[in-house]
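On clarity, I found the account of how folds are encoded harder to follow than it need be. What matters is that the chain and its backbone geometry are given together, residue for residue. For the editor and my fellow referees, an illustration may be useful. For illustration, here is how one protein appears when written out as sequence plus structure tokens:

___
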Amino acid sequence: MTSNEVLNAIRGRRSVLRFEAKPVTDDEIEAILEAGRWAPSFANSQPWTFVVVRDENTRRELGQLVDRIAFAHRGHYAVSGKGTGDAPVLIAVVLDPVKDPQHWVEAGAVATQNMALMAHSLGLASYWAGLGGKSEAEARRILGVPKGLRIASLLPIGRPAYAPKPGERAPLAGIVRYDRFGS
């Protein structure tokens, strides 16, 4: 199988749930935002706005929201008390469904992935926190996102507090079909 820098970055990126109390530089944030800006979107609609959150109280409030919806059942944060809100930077990916009524979800997903990969390439870590229903409404309130816009994800970014385990994936033979699904 061909291997290159991009595939290696994709394979190496892992979700990290705890972060060191070290700052992320303005240049690093700009590079991450640039990666998001260059994500593909239907008809180049670019329906996104990126909200960079550095304010400690806002980050902690969003972190508590993510902890409640994503981790309560797993017990990760009940033990450590640290997590998403401890990242020195959090980026909210906000979408305008009017700019792209059919594909805004995909646009937000690919922009989030681009930014997560860029963070990884800079030696930083991230965690993709998806929102929905009441949790999205609460995040919109916390961030002052206008009515009609949607939050696709929250992406906490920082220096990893631990080395994540290598990932595992199903073999290609089990997930690939050629020409038709039933083949």
User: Anything to note?
Assistant: The first strand starts at residue 48 and ends at 53.
